[in-house]
Amino acid sequence: ARENELSTLRQDTSNLNTDIKNLKLQNNNLSNDKLSQSEQFNAALKNKSDELKLKSDELMAKEKLLAERENALNDMKKVVARQDSITNRLNNILRDALLGFKSDELSVYVKNGKVYVSMSDKLLFKSGSAAVETKGVEAIKVLADVLNKNNDIDILVEGHTDNIPIKTALYHDNWDLSAARAISIVRILTDEYKIAPTRLTASGKGEFSPRASNSTPEGRALNRRTEIILSPKLDELMKLLKVN
Q1: Rounded to two decimals, what is the model's pTM?
Q2: Which of 55, 108, 158, 181 is the most buried (most CB within 10 A)?
Q3: CB 236: neighbour CB atoms within 10 A?
Q4: Confidence class for position 239, pLDDT limits 50, 70, 90
């Protein structure tokens, strides 16, 4: 009986040991599962944190770029406003300086941010000639006095004609004549009044940029002109555009 009891106890002990081992294994498995879930959670949390930081960095970079562009735009607006101020001041100075000339001889106006001094051929030239007449030289002198006091102005001299053909020993056509007239004025400005050649451009437009119809004498008279176009230098604006 004792042997049977002892055998039973041994079996019970063996069974308990087996249960303990199984419980320990289950406990280890549960611990491993919990650890795995925790690691997965931590990994997911880190990914979300990294993603949030990346988006935050992108937002900060975009905000910085936007601020830089706004600053650049404000700088450009200031330069443009300064140039408009120069243009308007120059227009007023020239109008006052050239009051002695008739409206059909000379006009001053602002167009596209530039000052136009438009001189008729009756003021400047004889028909078919590029030699500047005495009264025209007087007008150019007044203009040169103003330009020498305003060095931040670029000067474009454009010759224009009507559409009546011309062909002489000197000039093949109206285009040739208009370019020669522009060059004559440029030479007076540089040779007589010492305006820097780097500020000047001579251009002949011929009959191809009319102000009025060539079908009437009045229209053709308006088209026979030399325009001196004055532009504030764009150096500051070009620098801003290049940098930004």
Answers
A1: 0.69
A2: 181
A3: 17
A4: low
